[in-house]
């Protein structure tokens, strides 16, 4: 499964990067666009087994490259930031109780919002526009929740609560 | 026992190797990406342009379709307002035409500022990111250079060229947090429209002269300030001395102080003034004229006179 995901994740990131920069700009809410690349990165990391560091680095690297391509910043900022966030997500998940039904939506949302906020804060040198950032967080979380339920449905027939 | 101890040492050795090797590879990769950053970003845009164009078209169409549903209730009101505005504009147009013909004083004002003639290159929008950076499909091959102003067909300011690649460029919108534009309020047209609509019988030469005097007087009173980007496609007016009078609804245009943009380019309209007597400057919220949902093409100004 992980090999399948590793192959499919590249075109998915590419598709989401284009969707985010060309289609969703016409659906901006007060100038904010959802960060679909981050959503995909987060879902991939959230359902990765804890010790799969290579995969976390791989996903962080890919997501970072695409985020850096569509931004004005140099290559590397998003890559390093996402790898650190990815490892942090796994640490936080380790502290949370992994019940039979997998993680609850509440845990998922809290970690998602926290990690996206950290990403935006660091990327913009702590000088974020509060209202716009909040709108972006909420807008992105709508897509993240959608992704959460899709993955949950996929996992319904599997015994494991990990996608891989 | 000996064997397991040996394997433990080996495992530890490999763990250290991994810890050293992974960051080294990672930083090497980042270094390589930065070394070829120009080519990578350019290739991405060139390859993605056909898809982006399709997505952009689909996005614009569906956004307009949804927008028309949401605004259906306001259509009659909007129509009424537009008709009213059209009448006012027609009245203003006739006044301005007659003023232009006979008014020598107006040309004296324009002598102090640069000529508005400039050459442009048309470009299509291919993307926008969360940092208020637009991507257009023209690059260094088309003669685009960093710092060139970007407007639309209605003379509305969008921003300036931030970074140029071979086949595309990044435009820093005026709403980007790092953007600053020198502006001035445009009181001439709005005040003249209001005053002349009521006095529709006055069209004589005497009236034209009177209007011209008013225009000169108003032009001298134009307030200067700075428009700063606030992110999220929003802008605000700043550094307007607290004694200067600005009103809601006033139009902001680029001033001849600004060497980065040609003068008289439309920027936005004042919607809410934030005045505090304890502060030396007043601020105002601005509704920008640029509209990414309706714009079809942008124009990069490649050459304009910068002399004041």
Overview of the structural elements:
Chain A has 164 residues and is mostly helical. Helix content of chain A is 70%, strand content 0%. Chain A has helices at 2-23, 36-46, 53-70, 77-95, 105-123, 130-155. The termini of chain A are close together. Chain B is α+β, with helices and mostly antiparallel strands and 308 residues long. Chain B contains six helices and twelve strands. Chain B has helices at 2-35, 37-70, 75-102, 104-112, 188-198, 205-220; strands at residues 118-128, 133-136, 149-151, 157-164, 169-173, 180-186, 224-231, 234-241, 251-254, 266-274, 281-288, 297-304. In chain B, strands 1-2-5-4-3-12 form a six-stranded antiparallel β-barrel. Chain B has a six-stranded antiparallel barrel with strand order 6-7-8-11-10-9. In chain B, a hairpin with a 6-residue loop joins strand 10 and strand 11 (281-288). In chain B, helix 3 (75-102) crosses helix 6 (205-220). The longest helix of chain B has 34 residues, at 2-35.
| Helix content range of chain A | over 70%
The strand order across the widest sheet of chain B is 1-2-5-4-3-12
> What proportion of the residues of chain B is helical, as a percent range?
40-55%
Tally of DSSP β-strands of chain A: 0
User: What is the CA-atom radius of gyration of chain A, in angstroms?
Assistant: 15 Å
What letter string, H or E per element, gives the SSE order of chain B? Answer: HHHHEEEEEEHHEEEEEE
Stretches with pLDDT under 50, minimum 5 residues of chain B: 108-114, 189-194, 196-205, 215-220
State the separation between the terminal residues of chain B, measured CA to CA.
Answer: 88 Å
List keywords for this structure.
heterodimer; A: 164 residues; mainly alpha; 6 helices; 0% strand; B: 308 residues; alpha+beta; six-stranded antiparallel barrel; 12 strands; elongated
């Amino acid at each position: 499964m992980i090999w399948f995901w590793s192959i499919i994740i590249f075109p998915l990131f590419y598709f989401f990067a284009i969707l985010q920069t060309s289609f969703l700009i016409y659906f901006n809410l007060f100038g904010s666009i959802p960060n679909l690349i981050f959503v995909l990165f987060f879902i991939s990391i959230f359902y990765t087994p804890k010790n799969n560091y290579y995969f976390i680095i791989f996903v962080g690297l890919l997501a970072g490259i695409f985020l850096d391509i569509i931004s004005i910043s140099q290559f590397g900022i998003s890559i390093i930031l996402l790898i650190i966030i990815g490892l942090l997500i796994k640490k936080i998940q380790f502290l949370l109780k992994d019940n039979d039904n997998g993680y609850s939506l509440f845990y998922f949302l809290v970690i998602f919002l926290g990690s996206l906020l950290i990403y935006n804060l660091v990327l913009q040198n702590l000088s974020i526009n509060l209202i716009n950032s909040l709108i972006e967080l909420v807008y992105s979380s709508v897509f993240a929740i959608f992704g959460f339920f899709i993955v949950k449905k996929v996992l319904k027939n599997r015994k494991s609560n990990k996608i891989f | 026992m000996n064997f397991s101890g040996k394997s433990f040492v080996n495992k530890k050795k490999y763990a250290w190797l991994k810890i050293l090797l992974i960051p080294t590879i990672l930083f090497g990769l980042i270094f390589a990406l930065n070394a070829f950053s120009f080519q990578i970003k350019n290739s991405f845009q060139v390859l993605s342009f056909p898809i982006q164009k399709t997505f952009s078209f689909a996005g614009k169409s569906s956004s307009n379709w949804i927008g028309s549903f949401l605004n259906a209730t306001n259509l009659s009101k909007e129509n009424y307002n537009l008709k009213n505005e059209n009448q006012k504009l027609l009245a203003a147009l006739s006044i301005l035409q007659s003023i232009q013909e006979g008014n020598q004083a107006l040309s004296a004002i324009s002598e102090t500022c640069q000529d508005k003639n400039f050459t442009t290159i048309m470009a299509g929008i291919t993307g926008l990111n969360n940092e208020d950076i637009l991507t257009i499909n023209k690059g260094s091959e088309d003669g685009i250079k960093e710092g060139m102003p970007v407007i639309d067909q209605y003379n509305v300011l969008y921003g300036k060229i931030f970074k140029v690649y071979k086949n595309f460029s990044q435009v820093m919108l005026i709403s980007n947090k790092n953007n600053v534009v020198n502006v001035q309020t445009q009181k001439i047209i709005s005040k003249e429209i209001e005053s002349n609509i009521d006095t529709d019988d006055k069209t004589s030469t005497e009236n034209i002269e009177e209007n011209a005097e008013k225009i000169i007087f108003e032009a001298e009173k134009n307030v200067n300030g700075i428009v700063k980007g606030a992110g999220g496609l929003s802008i605000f007016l700043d550094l307007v001395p607290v004694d200067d009078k600005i009103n809601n609804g006033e139009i902001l245009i680029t001033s001849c102080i600004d060497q980065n943009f040609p003068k008289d380019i439309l920027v936005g309209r004042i919607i809410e003034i934030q005045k505090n007597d304890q502060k030396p400057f007043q601020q105002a919220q601005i509704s920008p004229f640029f509209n990414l949902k309706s714009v079809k093409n942008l124009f990069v100004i490649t050459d304009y006179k910068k002399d004041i």
